[in-house]
Design brief:
single chain; 88 residues; mainly alpha; 2 strands
């Protein structure tokens, strides 16, 4: 009984020549190296985009918080000015 090679492994055949060269024949069903690299790059690119978007969101939230603090300080100052005007 002959064992079948794993589909992900390359099949090695020894040619019947005086030099005994090795001929490596990749399995046609196995994904190519280019396809595997492309598949690895896809999540990397997606994570990069997610990181960029989250950084932009953090910047926007910080600006919003700063604006809210500025507005609250301004309203408090206006309230204090009104109180002083009424009491004088």
């Amino acid at each position: 009984m002959t064992e079948r090679p794993d589909p992900g492994e390359a099949v090695i055949r020894i040619a019947n020549t005086p030099i005994n060269r090795f001929e490596i024949t990749p399995d046609p069903d196995a994904p190519s190296l280019v396809a595997l690299i492309g598949e690895a790059e896809a999540p990397h690119a997606a994570l990069g985009m997610a990181r960029t978007r989250s950084q932009k969101l953090i910047i926007a939230l910080r600006q919003r918080r700063k604006q809210a603090r500025f507005m609250a300080d301004t309203l408090n100052t206006l309230r204090r000015l009104k109180v002083h005007e009424v009491t004088e």
